[in-house]
């Protein structure tokens, strides 16, 4: 896809290695919406329109997304630096941005191995840049869909990076709210949990409307109605269910901004005061 292929959107990204038929710039995509909210450039006009509609409903959306991302960084740093985890299976990773899982993990444990999994062609193209991690470790980007965990677990590339006889951190950051109830979100997570041994961790974050009584669910999810994946906010109890059978690490399942905040980390003021997302980390007994 060259500059001349970018249609009427002069700010659209250029993807030289992905067949144009696999990318529809007119349909908002969660990964590109997220990229825009993080300040990235890998998005189209349709994605920016959907993102701005979210901001209109919730003025703190942009800051909340950044707080969500910061939670992921703190949790990965804890796993690599304090919990001794050196294997990470990051499913639904999204378009690479600053402070990716492998960057943080290998900063604490150079030998850390990270398998990124996503089913989006745009993410896969940008994921090639992730293969420049620490030479002492290993990083790979695998094309697979969270809705088919058995294929993720059987993928030869995943097996090359991850030794499933040793503890693994399964990362599902900001992805389960794109899986509808009809797609059996809890069953999908249970398959991933069952595949890893005792001492493994589940890192999960999820969008919620628990802090937004004034917002109607249909207004919040509407920007995603015409996207490639719907938005399904869940309550604290519904999110907690993903960790069933595992032991939550202190402070438990909490709003992402209150999960082990780092006093040295820049704390953005979030309009409305809430990030509208839960985050938690649990260990398999």
From TrEMBL:
<protein>
    <submittedName>
        <fullName>S-adenosyl methyltransferase</fullName>
    </submittedName>
</protein>
<dbReference type="InterPro" id="IPR029063">
    <property type="entry name" value="SAM-dependent_MTases_sf"/>
</dbReference>
<dbReference type="InterPro" id="IPR006764">
    <property type="entry name" value="SAM_dep_MeTrfase_SAV2177_type"/>
</dbReference>
<dbReference type="Pfam" id="PF04672">
    <property type="entry name" value="Methyltransf_19"/>
</dbReference>
<keyword id="KW-0489">Methyltransferase</keyword>
<keyword id="KW-0808">Transferase</keyword>
<dbReference type="GO" id="GO:0032259">
    <property type="term" value="P:methylation"/>
</dbReference>
<dbReference type="GO" id="GO:0008168">
    <property type="term" value="F:methyltransferase activity"/>
</dbReference>
């Amino acid at each position: 896809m060259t500059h001349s292929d970018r249609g009427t959107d002069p700010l659209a990204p250029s993807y030289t290695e992905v067949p144009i038929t696999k990318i529809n710039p007119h349909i908002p995509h969660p990964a590109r919406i997220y990229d825009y909210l993080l300040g990235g450039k890998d998005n189209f006009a349709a994605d920016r329109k959907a993102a701005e509609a979210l901001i209109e409903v919730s003025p703190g959306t942009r800051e909340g997304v950044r707080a969500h991302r910061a939670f992921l960084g703190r949790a990965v740093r804890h796993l690599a630096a304090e919990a001794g985890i050196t294997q990470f299976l990051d499913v639904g990773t999204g378009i690479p941005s600053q402070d990716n899982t492998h960057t943080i993990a290998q900063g604490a444990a150079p030998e850390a191995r990270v398998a990124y999994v996503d089913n989006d062609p745009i993410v896969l193209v940008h994921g090639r840049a992730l293969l420049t991690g620490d030479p002492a470790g290993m990083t790979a980007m695998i094309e697979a869909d969270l809705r088919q965990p058995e294929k993720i677990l059987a993928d030869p590339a995943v097996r090359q990076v991850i030794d499933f006889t040793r503890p693994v951190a399964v990362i599902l950051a900001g992805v389960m709210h794109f899986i509808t109830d009809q797609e059996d979100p809890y069953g999908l997570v249970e398959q991933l949990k069952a595949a890893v041994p005792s001492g493994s961790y589940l890192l999960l974050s999820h969008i919620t409307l628990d802090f937004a009584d004034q917002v109607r669910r249909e207004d919040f999810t509407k920007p995603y109605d015409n996207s490639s994946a719907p938005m399904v906010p869940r309550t604290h109890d519904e999110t907690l269910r993903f960790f069933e059978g595992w032991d939550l690490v202190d402070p438990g399942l909490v709003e992402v901004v209150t999960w082990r905040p780092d006093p040295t980390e820049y704390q953005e003021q979030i309009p409305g005061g809430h990030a509208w997302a839960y985050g938690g980390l649990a260990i398999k007994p």
